[in-house]
Amino acid sequence: MLDQIRDLYQEVVFDHNRNPRNFRVMADANRTIQGFNPLCGDRITLYAKVKDGLIEDISFQGAGCAISTASASLMTEMVKGQSEAEAEKLFETFHRMTTGKSGDDINLEDIGKLAVLSGVRAYPARVKCATLAWHSLQAALKDEGHSISTE
Amino acid sequence: MHPHPTTLDLEAIRQQFPILAERINGHPLVYLDNAASTQKPLCVIDRLSEVYRVDYANVHRGVHTLSQRCTDLFEEAREKVRRFINARHTHEVIFVRGTTEAINLVAQSYGRSKLMPGDEILISAMEHHSNIVPWQMLALQTGAVLKVAPISLEGTLLMAEFEGLLSEKTRLVSITHMSNALGTINPVKDIIRLAHARDIPVMLDGAQSAPHLPMDVRDLDCDFFAFSGHKLYGPSGIGVLYGKESLLEAMPPYQGGGDMIRRVTFEETEFNELPYKFEAGTPNIADTIALGAAIDFVEAIGMAAIADHEEQLLTYATSKALEIEGLRLIGSAPQKGAILSFTLEGIHPHDIGTLLDQLGIAIRAGHHCAMPVMDFFGLPATARASFALYNTFDEVDTLMDGIRQVIKLFK
User: Fold this and answer.
1) pTM of this prediction?
2) What ipTM was assigned to the predicted interfaces of this complex?
């Protein structure tokens, strides 16, 4: 009966929820950001090591729903080793994919595995779950202090 | 099949709520988010539309027929509220937007005119944000201190600690009658007795209790009581502050404007008498009259019968929930309203909420505007099923079946 929700809860989402990648504290991070979604109370701590414009390492901690955990996990996989500019571009594409109109032209090749989260667009109440990690990343790259909120 | 067949004619009751016939995501709606807001019966929906079709004009002003008719209906609603909570006087019933505004009114009028630096306001650790933040704001304005009485892991108020926090500096106790996050029904008569023994007035947040328990403010002897229409099968945007006459008389107005005055010059204003002193501006006329219709509706069924039915639903739902492996109930007070707050091992409440919605089951997932309660239990959120007079035992079964499907999907 729950099959119809597979567009949002795909196997990749369950996989990353069960075994989140880069799920650890990073002692030598030079960027640490607390992300907070006041709507649901979810929190995430994002750690990054950024050197010469390159995201050398990235990890996260926190307790969130399957969508937010999978999104954070997938994000760390994708942006690790990317330049800040590449990560920023990916954020913009991801943001458009999750919040834009269905007719928006998204090149799925650009976003790779992140495409599994495109289904969240049909669930407006859950978009912030998918974007929390990304807003945190953006703040970390801009080095905007130590905590951000999705509101 | 169900241990206690209900005394309510549920089929007839459900027919009064058109929305219950809706299908959500291909399934019949199972509406279990009643602690957030209840659905509306036809008599309320129709009354609202009828006011605008045949009765509407501004109140307390005109000499024309419609204005008088609408004023009479508006004041009839006030009398219905008085009867519903058994207040002594009709003018002890102040119409506000909802429980939140009622608490803010007491904080800003009673609190701000009375409190001195170092004075204390006592609340509990199970309050909704609306019974925390207005007092924090008041504390900032006056230099008063907000004290918080702790709760047990069951979700009950620790009475000895509560009593210990009543000090010679305590100026007001404000406490929830029934917790929206845990379902706990507080021993408010004991609380009031302990506070009154020290001449401390008590405000009750009745947002959850008024729709589900017979209410008698004189028997409780509370000094202020607040509730919202939209949780009582009435419209949103209308609620009630009850206050004892002597307290209300001594309080300054909350807002200034029309209707709350007797005489205005540029030098000074003479305020109107109760209850109008606290009702500045054109009130929410139609919703107030429709709230009266909602009260007629629940009184025709009987608050005792409603409370009895909901208690049976809770007992049944609790026993069924406890059969589910990995399900943890949050809030297990012996005295509890029909609220089932729970977590599932390894599954976030938001995922539970989205997945149950796919089965047509509406629950709340989140912090329930009670973040300190979540912090106390070390949880980011819970899933919450909350019941109302129209819910059935079959719906409890549907919920439990849905929860099992969610667990299966996550395995």
Assistant:
1) 0.93
2) 0.86
